[in-house]
Design brief:
- The chain is α+β, with helices and mostly antiparallel strands.
- About 25% of the residues lie in helices and about 35% in strands.
- The protein has one domain (about 30-130).
- Strands 2, 3, 4, 6 and 7 form a 5-stranded antiparallel β-sheet that branches. Strands 5-1-10 form a 3-stranded mixed β-sheet, with no helix packed on it.
- It is elongated.
């Protein structure tokens, strides 16, 4: 085996090992931590959008009490409603960002594997969410 062929063989092993690693590590879904201040708010998924921005009707109602965890599909984005009695309801948009694992896919076989991870959702990740609720302003009893 010539030195050039040996070098190519040695370089191809780690490149193949890293291929599509974002999908292998991340998977299609992610558990996203959600907290609220004050705790105990109800967090509901009100809208889900696919990766093309098309609204997807949820098959069932998803809601949790914060602090809690929602399992979200990495390819999609969401709109959440956070509510607690005595506080103004808040809408939160949840959009994915590139996972740092995706950058390892740039090294090996570039486009082929980026496409695989794009289709599966492994390129993306969500940040945990914290919502600070604002107390409702209630009219106080007037003084005479």
């Amino acid at each position: 085996m010539t030195p050039d062929l040996l070098a190519l063989a040695l370089l191809s092993v780690p490149m193949l090992a890293l291929s599509a690693c974002a999908s292998m590590i991340n998977g299609r879904t992610q558990e996203v931590g959600i907290t609220s201040d004050p705790p105990g708010a109800t967090v509901s998924v009100v809208t889900r959008f696919d990766r093309y921005g098309q609204r997807v009707e949820p098959s069932d109602s998803i809601s949790i009490t914060a602090p809690g965890v929602l399992r979200l599909a990495r390819l999609d984005s969401y709109r959440l409603l956070v509510q607690k009695e005595g506080y103004l309801p808040q809408e939160v948009r949840v959009a994915h960002r590139y996972s740092w694992w995706a950058y390892l896919d740039v090294l090996p076989l570039l486009l082929d594997l980026m496409v695989i991870n794009e289709e599966i959702g492994g390129l993306y990740a969500f940040d945990d969410i914290h919502v600070t609720l604002i107390p409702e302003m209630r009219p106080s009893a007037g003084r005479d």
